Fold:
Amino acid sequence: MKAVCQFCHKILEIEVGLFQDLSGCKCDTCGGKLVQYQEPKPLPPAPAPTVTPKVPERSEIKTLEEAKTYLNANLRDGVDCPCCGQMAKIYKRKFNSWMARAMVAFYQHIGMKPGWFHAIGVITDRRFWKHKINNSCGDYGKLVYWNLLEDAAGHREDGNPENGYYRMTQKGMDFVLGKLRIKKYVYLYNDTLLEVEGNDETITIHEAMGMAFNYSELMSA
Structure:
């Protein structure tokens, strides 16, 4: 059997009987104690190298794959699609003070009338004028991307995507009450939420509201 010295790590071939072990066996070089040698496990194969496709110049595009490579490489800055000419861009959206104040108004509204609500109807309600919500801004629709509101579009029989009705999720209620933090930014492409590596910065409703508005005053309005 093979044995290895615990001191100098020399590997030796040792003859032992059927009912014998290495007790008392010593290295013939340094006199160190011998233990049974274990064959090392083979290393796993090295992963295949990642090949990053070369980004072609727009004038060099000849195939659909080249067009996709070119488009994906330029989405952050925005680019006209080389196939159809449509503008393609990834948009970075920040959770802002307007959204925070709108969420407070929506929360207070469902406290009086639970369920689905018409966003513009709440925003223009004189009871919430103190919140100073600009009803010409459509940012309330983007609250869906943070999973704070649920859009009623998928709940209508006619499938109308522009119905303007929403209801608050449990996450939305917890956020308004200061129980959790949400991502400060979301990334959107073609109205689709993207998961972006490194997008870890978070924010509370107090932080989003900023110094110009008092959270406690708005919640008690």
Summary: The first strand starts at residue 2 and ends at 5. The first helix runs from residue 64 to 73. The radius of gyration is 32 Å.
